[in-house]
Predict the 3D structure of the following.
Amino acid sequence: MCPPAVAQAWAALGGAPELLPLVSYEGYARGLLAARLPVLDLARACVAVCSLAAAEYAGRGGPVPRVRVDDGAVATAFVSERHLRVDGRAPSMFAPLSRFWRTTDGWVRTHANYPHHEAALLAALGLREDRVEPVERALAKLRAVDVEERVYAAGGLAVALRTRAQWAAHAQGAAVAAEPLVHRERLGNRAPRARGGRLRVLDLTRVIAGPVATRTLALLGADVLRVDAPGLPELADQHADTGFGKRSALLDLARPTDRTTFDELLADADVVVTGYRPGALDRLGLSAEELAARRPGLVVAQLSAWGEAGPWAGRRGFDSLVQVATGIADAERDSGA
């Protein structure tokens, strides 16, 4: 029997329902990713639909191969950072100022892993010291939503802890709820190019969500090249964990010579994946429409924290903050916390 989450995700991608019986499931156990919410169900669905889509592509013009999904492997992949070792050392994923903080009326979560975000947080609070104690004292005097707005206005990232009901009542929550799970549209008049060999993917993503998506494409057989701007900081451990199977390059797309190199790569690409907030790449001429105009038949996949509609559409965001805003963190927190 096909798990409901798999059927829903496959339908959202426009997949043919008659292919769903090709997927089999092993090690069906709910304790692997222990949570109050159906985390394993969603993880399984992600892996199943990605694998089935890859099988369908591999079998074009002939029979589609069968797919086997193993819950143990799925669970391991979804906590891959916990298994990573760099020179025998476990990775460090969060900076001291990236955490939950008490406010006058609840909790707020900040994200300060990158120097410019840490600087924005401190500026919003009128602080110069990057120590926990001064930040803790400053936030304890403010309302959570005031922290959210003040830090965002300074160019930083902070989100108030909300319940699922509070998120549903929020303007951004309502905007996201009105959108489909996956938005699909044709760019230009040319269908995606059918390539005989490996798909070539340009990876314009960073942090976790986008790089994991492109890591998945690489593990399914795509030729993936991650392109980073040399001036943007990145966490080395995180880059390593999400970089298996990929190549990487540094290109400053504002420099003519680097832009020429990128345009040459684009001319031979089948897919471009972007993971920046909506509109962030437009100034570089990298909107989906402009990319497709320069490379007809290109598939463009875009990921963002808050979606493309609503008052938060242009905001920066990370998975840890999305969980806090949408009620996931509230649903999963310990009793009394």
User: Anything to note?
Assistant: The chain has a mean pLDDT of 92. The chain has three domains: 4-78, 100-176+313-332, 200-302. The CA atoms of residues 286 and 301 lie 12 Å apart.
